Amino acid sequence: MKNHQAQIIGVLQLINSTDKHTGEVLDFSHQDLKLAESLASQAAVALTNKKLIDEQKVLFETLIKLIATAINENHLNIRRRDSMKTLRFAGCVSSSRRQVLR
Description:
This protein is mostly helical. 65% of the residues lie in helices and 4% in strands.
């Protein structure tokens, strides 16, 4: 399986095409190979999407931790009203992220 950058990210293994009646091992048909390529392509897209979502979660959690640290340590010299705005912003980002992931 290759991603959109033509990097190999996985393998789809097909084991033995067989005749339905005799059980004899056959070569895969052209149609079987095209179907396997299509499935591999879809699997690659799914794996890439999963990786991107996982990376987005890490970035989001890092952003929230950074905001919380800044508020707790008062590095940004934030007044109470401003810190509430920051927390509301974080909540909006969280809501938007959930909507994108649906």
